[in-house]
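seq:
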Amino acid sequence: MTRILGLLICFFLSVGTFTAQLGASARQYQKAVVVSAQKYEPITPRRGKHTDAPPPGTEYDYDVAIRLNCSVYVGRYQSAIEYLPAVFSPNQPVEVSLEKQVMYVKVPGSRDVKMGIVERRSESADSCNGAANLRQ
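struct:
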């Protein structure tokens, strides 16, 4: 009985891994450019009493702005340690795949970085055309 249970667990794990890899390879990536990356500072409202409680677990989060065509998407990069990949430096070319509220960025030597999209803004026609001319 335990042998069958073990085989079933292995089967479901391998199917889950295969499905995740299939989903990653099915993504369509587009060329984009990093605009900026800055440390995310959460706004914590004061609710009357001061406490000794530590701040929320966002100590090493960054907001990364990426220009794709004529739109700038701001994704929140979350890290457990104080580390921001070098690919997120301004003016660096990156490959991006967008989904509803999520952005995947290819990072060399690593798996794709998944970031939640926290903001999207369109650029004016003048700055958008200027950026398109720089890429050509």
